[in-house]
Design brief:
Strand order of the largest sheet: 1-2-4-3
Strand content: 5-15%
Oligomer: single chain
Radius of gyration: 28 Å
Structural class: alpha/beta
Number of strands: 4
CATH architecture of the largest domain: 3-Layer(aba) Sandwich
Bound molecules: zinc ion
Length: 314
């Protein structure tokens, strides 16, 4: 389009509208003296190629997956969650492991999921997700559980592991910590002391959350970063990061859980005793009104529908 770009001769009239209506190309008529300092583009995270491979569309788990998940959105949201929780972007992003592509394989297999580098090139990651597992998730949990597993596995694509020497339980704990922070924890997860700090998964995930709350907001980022290229030496590792041995941190965490439990117990007792008095009041009313007193859900906060009769779901 020839939009008569000739710059009008300087006019004494001050009331000339600054911008002509044409919202087309900006390059023509703009006053360059004013568009001076454009800020440098903000550093942003790497964006890997995301791919999907569905090996068995006849499998009922495939139907569950696609009824609940838009894979393109789900995978890119998982990448965003993982990178924003574990890293700050920089110009070079050389503190982030190379990961050029992530391919999700949906396939019939035992277990839940696993992540691996491709045979040809470790920078290309593969997440293998079990259709059998997907098929037995209670329907009310399907969407969140699928996304939760994707986020957990996506962490493995991007986390450091002290050149293969980090405790497996720490690696798995970081994955569930990120899942927790992404708001995708599972209803059966609970904070628990006892056992080893690095028993893994949510057990370690909640411990990491406590470290984050007591030792500083970016603690897990720092832990992950410290696993970048040095071998893991337990005492040195934790002392350098937080000035304490991990065994001491674990003890402190267990102590905080005891206190929390005591407080919730006391609260529950209070709530129970007030509920009892209310219930007594209500049952008096109900008797008077002939009310049906069946309770809502048998347990938990989600009505778990088992809509597949031949699914044992155990
Ligand atoms: Zn894992």
């Amino acid at each position: 389009m020839s939009a008569a770009p000739t710059e009008p001769t300087p006019s004494p009239l001050p009331s000339r509208p600054k911008k002509e209506a044409t919202h087309q190309e900006k390059d023509g008529g703009e006053d360059n003296s004013k568009t001076i300092s454009r800020p440098h583009p903000k550093p942003s995270f790497p964006t890997p190629k995301l791919r999907l491979s569905t090996l068995d569309l006849n499998h009922p788990g495939s139907n569950v997956f696609f009824s609940n998940t838009n894979p393109s959105k789900a995978l890119s949201e998982a990448v965003d969650a993982v990178l924003s929780i574990l890293y700050q972007p920089t110009k070079t992003n050389d503190h982030i492991p190379a990961c050029r592509s992530v391919t999700l394989f949906l396939q019939a297999m035992g277990g839940v999921a696993y992540t691996t580098g491709s045979d040809l090139d470790g920078d290309h990651k593969e997440i293998h997700f079990s259709l059998d597992y997907i098929n037995q998730i209670p329907s009310a949990r399907q969407k969140d559980e699928i996304q939760g597993v994707l986020v957990h596995e996506m962490v493995h694509c991007w986390q450091w592991n002290a050149v293969g020497t980090a405790p497996g339980g720490l690696v798995e704990g970081i994955a569930d910590f990120v899942r927790l922070k992404a708001g995708l924890s599972s209803p059966h997860w609970k904070k628990e002391g006892g056992g080893q700090w690095d028993a893994g998964y949510q057990h370690t995930g909640y411990f990491l959350e406590w470290i984050e709350n007591t030792c500083g907001r970016d603690s897990v980022r720092r832990i992950n970063h410290a696993l970048k290229d040095k071998k893991y030496e337990e005492d040195k590792f934790w002392e350098q990061l937080f000035g304490k041995k991990i065994s001491l941190l674990w003890k402190e965490y267990e102590g905080s859980l005891d206190e929390q439990q005591k407080a919730t117990r006391e609260n529950e007792e209070k709530v129970e005793s007030t509920a009892k008095t209310h219930e007594e009041d209500r049952s008096d009313d109900a008797e008077m009104n002939g009310e049906d007193k069946r309770s809502g859900h048998p347990e938990g906060d989600e009505p778990v529908k088992k809509d597949k009769p031949n699914n044992n779901g155990s």
